[in-house]
């Protein structure tokens, strides 16, 4: 275990008890139906506890994913003892994070409801479930537990002279800053164009602290044309990092609106990231390269486990909503993982559905076509099915191509597509290895 030379001047964090402050009016995140706003005291808050976590789903996912994970880590690749130990400690801490998150979400739900932070489930409008106040912004629990795990984990890994320590902490600062801005957005309902820019502010800690290389390897087929193998981008590289953060956060946030989709896509991508990292660690002999991928595992595992905990409540029918706190947090975490793990191209391939959704959304995002507050499908309370609208989202496109679907089925299709995109990326990497880079 590495000891730390740095001074331990960490200030104790103080937690403000929300119920002890005078009652304030909070803006509701749900702007479509405004009738429920401006409660004086939360006397009409539904105080029923939220539905229990969907353990069956988590069990299925774990049974499906843990055996291949252990196989890759223990048998398939000869990974050094030391590195394997760090990864396993991180996995154990992530597991603890999972249980803490599952435990804390119902508690936090009570508090956010008390402060009128809730939304109505738009895709259930016209049914009894459509009138339930669903607690919003539960991503805050995930974010806090994630940060605690990621901060504590440093104790088990980095040595005192590690350069990684600086960048690791800068990455955590970005994630924390993004969470704050996401929460601000949930509470204040920031205008759309401002929203787009928030991640570029949150990415500043990493952009300023980043001292790694700013070079890119030119793809082999292009080398004869360009004449060099490695190109130093200098400050343009930092610009690219900033743009990646803006893209990852917003693209997750706008591929949303169906129960389980926000968290589900993160779970799929984070799983792909962990698999990719272990494969790269196993196949490489370069210590720096391995370290970069190990760094990524240390952030992706807690992201995966805490997100799974949230998914157990957010899966159809959602008993909590994740809020922009979560979408921004998850997007930023994956962006810093891609940047510091030096695999942002692969990351963008994992993000293929998000890229398509973003491109498909461009006419509305740019204002060329009017963009309503919610670009969701049309729900028919009689049949319980969703129909695609003309709004430019992948959700609507899927419905128009595949026909009317229930919300749950649609989400499974979209997550299936996400998984196919990740498999496609692995295949592409496999076939292009050696030829492309
Ligand atoms: C983004 C999308 C918007 C989409 C919304 C849904 C763009 C430009 N913006 O906006 O089209 O409608 O996400 O998250 O593409 N909700 C549900 N069911 C869910 C999840 C959310 O009904 O499964 C509703 C709830 O009322 C919830 C609200 O969406 O309160 C949250 O919306 P918010 O995250 O604030 O929307 P944006 O991120 O601004
Ligand atoms: Mg959102």
Helix content: 55-70%
Mean of the pLDDT scores?
Answer: 86
Q: Which radius of gyration do the C-alpha atoms yield?
A: 22 Å
Percent of residues in beta strands? Answer: under 5%
Bound molecules: uridine-diphosphate-N-acetylglucosamine, magnesium ion
Beta strand count:
6
Q: Order of helices and strands, N to C?
A: HHEEHHHHEHEHHHHHHEEHH
- Note the gap between the termini: 36 Å
Main pleated-sheet profile: 2 strands, antiparallel
- The largest sheet has its strands arranged as 1-2
The shape, in one word, is globular
Low-confidence stretches: 1-46
What does this entry look like structurally?
The protein is mainly α. It contains 15 helices and 6 strands. The chain has a two-stranded antiparallel ribbon. A hairpin with a 4-residue loop joins strand 5 and strand 6. The two termini are about 35 Å apart. The relative contact order is 0.13. Mean pLDDT is about 85; it is low at about 1-45. The structure holds uridine-diphosphate-N-acetylglucosamine (UD1) and magnesium ion (MG). Uridine-diphosphate-N-acetylglucosamine binds next to helix 8. Pathway: Protein modification; protein glycosylation. This is UDP-N-acetylglucosamine--dolichyl-phosphate N-acetylglucosaminephosphotransferase.
